[in-house]
Specification:
Blueprint (H helix, E strand, L loop, with lengths): L9 H8 L31 H16 L3 H13 L6 H7 L1
Length: 94
């Protein structure tokens, strides 16, 4: 039987995604300097559009405790039912 949750520490996932959840860790623990390490670290790399979309998808999956297949199912249902309400929220919240 497959596990529905990940074995990684919640704080490690928060750091990777750059999201703070209340009640876990110190406030401000995820803050970063505006520059990278070393002599030539005065500029961070530009994040691609793909990376931004992937990170947002991962945030959504982590926040609601979904797996990839569940998220795909919800997105398909939400695309069918475009009646004005935010169907993605309605489907996930119920």
């Amino acid at each position: 039987m497959a596990k529905s949750t990940t074995a990684r520490s919640r704080f490690k996932i928060q750091r990777a995604l750059g999201v703070e959840l209340p009640g876990l860790g110190k406030s401000g623990a995820l803050e970063r300097r505006p520059y990278g390490p070393g002599v030539h670290g005065n500029r961070r790399k530009k994040i691609s559009d793909y990376a931004v979309r992937l990170k947002e998808k991962q945030k959504l999956m982590f926040h609601y405790g979904l797996r990839e297949k569940q998220l795909v199912t919800y997105v398909k249902q939400a695309k069918k039912n475009t009646a004005g309400k935010p169907w993605m929220e309605v489907l996930i919240e119920t």
